[in-house]
Give the backbone structure.
Amino acid sequence: MYNDIESDDLLIERVKKGDPEAFNPLVERYKLPLYKVMYRMVYNRDDAEDLVEEAFIKAFRSIKKFETGRSFYAWICRIAVNNAINHLRKEKRASVQPIELVEHRLVAKKGDPVEMTRQKVLQEKIAASMAQLPEDYRTILILRVEQGLSYDEISTILKIPRGTVMSRLARARQRLKELFKGMGVQENEV
Amino acid sequence: MKCDLPRELLSGYLDGELDREQKAEVEKHLRECERCRNELEELKQLDQQVRTLAIEEPSREFFFQLNRRIMQKVKKKPRSSLFRFSPILVPVAAAALVLIVLLNIQQPMRLVSLDDRILYAEVETKKDLDLQIPELGVVEETLEEKKVMAEGKARYSTATAKREAVIEAEPPAMQDEAVGVLSVEALQIPMDKVVRAIVDSTGKIVKVATGNTIIPEKDTMLENRLQGQQLSPPTVAGRRAQLYVDFTQKEEKK
């Protein structure tokens, strides 16, 4: 068994030395953040789960290429994002409309039914706007806004210069703002 | 006032990713530009809306079985690296394929050329070219080369006298190369048929047909039986050559 507080680097070193079980805490640590990124990209639970699993397997098999001292999450995120981009291109599902997916299975706030309905409609609009974003805008917004990754980490993941991260994010935000307006999403409406 | 602040600086400021100089520039601008202050506020709201976007919960299997599934897959023995695709092996594989193809191009691809026929016609008219099987004790009958192409004979027979000197029978010193070759007897050539063949320069039978017409009949069964059989290599003027030959058996022994 491995302690949850053991550092990524320590665990990775153990995996490199032939102890596959040391990979388990890494899976536990990053499976949900990765799932969120994948879900936002493909808007399908099963596909997102498969992509996460595939990313971990690929990461495990090429763990010797990972340089300790760097961010494991950024590294595996890059693997997963590349997988997802390939998946979207192959499946031609980049333009999938997620409105019907935002159903009762979503994590909804419990409480006032009227408020729940309002929230549901708002969520549908936001999700639809996000789905209409070009793939590269959507990906970079997910990595920055939802995952909170730094520009350097995003630069590593997407293999683009830091300056491009900054300009692409600015354009993505402008485009999303326009889409929100088109959907009737109020600025202060959450 | 005129607003000339690049949008990416505002976006970078929101993310806390500007260097000190850029940050100071944006803050100075924000103090003076209400429009950009509003814009920054809008971007904050936008980010908040993205963050609150609902997400479909992963399955229970994902929550509780992912580790086990990953471990099952990664502990499987990977395929041998010898058979794993490797881009570096592509040119090697291509070269190997080309080599295999080249090595497998059969001798019939090098069928007798017109020049070969000329030589043969010259031989035929003046002198038998004995293609002796080295195991003379075993083979009592000799394999005799005769005319093959009637029109070849007609066309070139007049020139034979001049060239006969260059044509010589195969020298008997081929014993060492005759190891493993078949005797004519072993070929079991039918007595009642005129059997013609192309024997390549190594002595291997590459094509077989029957009949003495200009275009001999194909005899698939006979060809299948004889094709590839190894005889002693024929030579012309001391040099190995591919030839048309008739397989006939003399009624009288030499």
Q: What stands out?
A: Chain B has a mean pLDDT of 68. Residues 110-247 of chain B form one domain. Residues 34-51 of chain B form the longest helix (18 residues).
